[in-house]
Amino acid sequence: MKEKIRIASGQGFWGDLIDAPYHQVTKGDIDYLVMDYLAEVTMSILQKQKNRNPNLGYATDLIDLMKKILPITTKKGIKVITNGGGVNPIACADAILEAAMHLDIKKLDVAVVLGDDIKNCLDDIIQKGCELKNMETGEPITLVKDKLLSANVYFGAAPIVEALKRGADIVITGRVTDTGLTLAPMIYEFGWDMNDYDLMAAGTVAGHILECGAQSTGGNFLGDWESIENFTEIGFPIAEAYPNGEVIITKHENTGGKVSFDTIAEQLVYEIGDPAQYITPDCVADFTSIKLEDVGKDRVKVYNVKGKQETEFYKVSCSYSSGYSATGTLTYSWPQALTKAKKADRILRKRLEQLGLKFDEIRSEFVGYNATHENLAPELDEDKINEIVLRFSVRAKDRNTVNRFGQEIAPLILTGPPSVTGFAGGRPKPKDVVAYWPALIRKTMVEPKVKILELK
Description:
Number of helices: 12
Helix content: 25-40%
Oligomer: single chain
Structural class: alpha+beta
Number of strands: 19
Strand content: 25-35%
Number of domains: 2
């Protein structure tokens, strides 16, 4: 058993800093590089790509990244774990193996975790009595089944652990929990019993800290953010994990950003719901038990984490088509910028009403005034406002209705209040609205599978 392992975060979402993983493998020593690419809406985007091209459906920029770091990770023995496989992890793994061959890498085992995509199995699942009821409304999935774009089970760390036990150098998954990417190498390296729920919770908390990349090293920090040095070259977090479940969060010394009690504490409360019941496939972690301690420059110890037995369910993330939407913007300048923008809003709404158009939602935002805080925004002295952007959005089930809205934005330039500019990008075009459908499924109804692919 190793005395400690260093697990480095390389991506917090699809579109994060593309060079962050390269810096993680070159600017210091690490044992594992974990990269989180997936969000709920990402799965639907990838499914659309796969529908158009069966060879796609994964985070394609991952391949160019792997071309860059594979010579380094193979030389240093760094293992890579990522859910960038999206809805097509096999194609993703094949592309990585092809890149490895072009780099003249002689040996590389890539494991693929399969089984999370249940879209084509829904009829059988429903017939077995699982209605995949919406966790918020209680409605059965049959209401939107014909509109489904994706349906994926959130697996935990177990299949990744199996892949590592089978000798994988790289593990490519589909919809595995963000925390599972980090927990898995701890279980594997330290031989943790997956029924030891305090240890499972400790690894889960470490994964939660790493999952959003630089958000735990000073990025998007709400505290004393001006104290954060060198945002330009911000370092991504590293979990220095120990067999007893204690973890020190740090970063490479020669990078920007900051690791402190405050940056870690802020990340811990990100997207957790009930802090005493953080539910994952591996355990239920109690975030109220966590203790943090600054133990050096850019080093925060995380310990005393408590956990309970996991539930009998997996969460299922589904997405479905829910109509169309469009957005248009106009910018009004001083004087009376806000008054002009509000007048334009009333004019546009009245014209849409007179056209008899029916929308599921109409939304006006006055960017520079209330786009963030809406009705909580305080009144402003108009003499001090240089400009206001009117951002007007609509959503409807009928594409033609949304398209007709797009024809009403530009005319406001010459038929509404004065001093207007900034009409964005021509006539707004309808785009698909993707809605989210969260559900639960018993773990006995689905099973992850691990497949090893080797260089030929």
